[in-house]
Specification:
Elements (H helix, E strand, L loop, with lengths): L2 H52 L1 H5 L3 H9 L7 E8 L4 E6 L7 H6 L1 E10 L2 E11 L1 H48 L9 H13 L4 E9 L2 H27 L5 E4 L4 E8 L3 H15 L4 E3 L2 E3 L3 E8 L6 H17 L5 E3 L2 H23 L2 E10 L4 E12 L3 E3 L1 H11 L2 H21 L7 E5 L7 H13 L7 E6 H8 L5 H7 L4 E6 L6 H7 L3 E4 L1 H9 L1 H16 L3 E4 L5 H9 L4 E2 L10 H8 L5
Parallel strand pairs: 10-11, 13-15, 15-16, 16-17, 17-18, 18-19, 19-20
Antiparallel strand pairs: 1-2, 1-4, 3-4, 5-7, 5-10, 6-7, 8-9, 12-13, 12-20, 13-14
Helix pairs in contact: 1-5, 10-11, 12-13, 17-18
The structure holds ligand C2E and calcium ion (CA) (2 copies).
Amino acid sequence: MPAAPSLLAHRRGALIAGATMLLSVFLLTAMQYLALNDRFHAELDTQAQIVGQNTSAALVFNAVSDAQEVLQALRAAPEVTSAQLLRSEGELFAAYRRSGSGAGWLGRLAGEATVEHRIQLNGAPVGRLVVTGDRSSVLRDLAKFWAGGVCIMAIALGLSWFVSRGLRASVRDAQERNRYLALHDALTGLPNRVSFQDALLRATDRPGTEHAVMFIDVDNFKQVNDLSGHGGGDQVLRVVAERLRSLLRPLDMVARIGGDEFAVLIEAPRQANEAAARVAADIVERVPRPIDFDGETLRVSVSVGIALLPHDAHNADDAMQCADAAMYQAKREGKDAFRFFSAALGEEIRRRSSLEADLRTALSEGQLLLHYQPVFDGQGRAVAMEGLMRWRHPLRGWVMPGDFIPLAESSGLIVELGLAALKRVRADLDAWQQQGWTPPPIALNLASQQFKREKHRQRFLAALPELGLTPGMLEFELTESAVFEDITSPDSVLEALRKLGFKFALDDFGTGYSSLSYLRRLKCAKLKIDKSFVRDMRQSEEAALLIRSIIDVAHALGMLVVAEGVETEEERSQLLALNCDLLQGYLMARPLAPEAVAQLLMPQPA
Ligand code: C2E
Ligand code: CA
Ligand code: CA
């Protein structure tokens, strides 16, 4: 407890301050005593002088009664207890004694002081006056002074104690507030990641009980933020926090451990899996109820991953990782659900981490290549080609992007992968140029994770002129989710690329959250209808209608429409009939190696 030493230090400080004040009061008292003593002697001396001078004539004329009368004047000085007038030879001439001047206890304590004054007449000594005074007035004055000093000291101490008590209270409040903030999330009031990890550590230290750790992630939270602003996002997080809290027992812990991530710790004497399944089912069912915000109704679902202690993991870190992996599994399988961690998932994690290591090697050893899939117009002319990443793994053989792009995105390797794609394009362009062929513009796919950091944006932007890649040679494709993240940022890489003259295509249109206002703001040259629409078009009249309206809107916004995944002649003609401008798919050409695409597209000498 850090409070004890601070209390001790505080007490010691108060003691030192008190002792210092006492010491100074004592020193002042001593000085005051000396001053009072001096003053007393001076006063006694003055009395002796005045009275002594007045007795000189009586001494000379031997008038004892006159001398006696003069001495009576000493009555006016209360401190004088007695006086003796002596002739110069030492013989007593007259005396004075204060009547009833029996010294009290103070007088006895203070003692007496005596002064002697030589009496002269015309320069000749005629006698001496010895005056004795009671010093109790010195002590009395000293006592008054001391009492005053002590009173002032007590008031000063009292005041400073009062002020410091207020200060101490506010320091204590601030410390408590800081401690609270360090362990809680300000938005939802829930414990934060640090608190959660602490609780988890304590839980793993308690053998004999079972625990379940849950990771809960709000599905598509970014879209809520983008569409309803941060106010909407905050409201969703607050309501989700409240609902989670209400679904759990007071002894269970729910924390907010990241942007839209929550974690739950449940203790169960045994069979934590059953308790966890019950709670998770409740969460998945009851958290996603509509949320009112600013007259709108927001809807979010959540994905939950569960790890069991000690079944899946023995320590806090592993438990968090397992729950996280299970949550991602729930996301991959379509979100809005809960999944338990499993041995197969553990195997999958190991596989992914070994794949990640391999991907690093692939990047450094140049195993990543591009294949090119042409895009044709209605007359069958290749007007562009899309660069699609291929990995020639020395042992695994060809690995397709679906197997490593998501991994590259989640591991951050996508940054290097994007730069590798640019270099590949340059190398392939050089090779084609040597064969005397200038290909149509190449479209590269971009992922938003490539541009999360400013330095990554700068590296990408710098690589283009370094490699001599110009807007005539290169275009970019982005998915809606990539666009969602980037367009709102002021130093958007898209804006920078657009200023350099590069064109964009909006990829996989229809699979994300499609918004017309976004389409307009994006100013994309092309819109690529996702292949799932093309697939559906065959069976469903509605899908065909949808494609027609997408095409109409895109045309109204000045965009060319590309249909992806065209596999049959029937699809091709239907799309062209719907006014689709460009077509891409296995029907016309599969993604091809650089030599093969050149062979296909290079005009053959007549
Ligand atoms: P995408 O951008 O939507 O690319 C089109 C995908 O559809 C390609 O898959 C292509 O081979 C496939 N495809 C083309 N025509 C047909 C068809 O007629 N039928 C069917 N069923 N499929 C067809 P691929 O090459 O496996 O790429 C998958 C995804 O990986 C791409 O989807 C893209 O999102 C991503 N990707 C590929 N290369 C890169 C890259 O260099 N960088 C980034 N960031 N992503 C890439
Ligand atoms: Ca694409
Ligand atoms: Ca696509």
